[in-house]
Amino acid sequence: MAHDHRQDHKHGEGHDHRGNDREQRHGHGHGHDHGDIDWAEMAPLLESQAELFTPLYERALNWLAKEVTEPGLIVDAGSGPGVIACLFAETFPGARVVAVDGSAPLLERARDRAARQGAADRFDTLAGDLPEVLGELDYPADLLWASRSVHHLGDQAAALAACAERLAPGGTLAVMEGGLAPRFLPRDIGFGRPGLQARIDALEEERFGLMRAELPGSVAVVEDWQALLASAGLRHTRSRTFLLDLPAPATDRARAYVTDALTRTREVLGECLDADDRATLDRLLDADDRASVHHRPDVFVLAAHTVHAAVRPV
Question: Dihedral through CA 66, CA 68, CA 72, CA 74, nearest 10?
Answer without folding.
Answer: -100
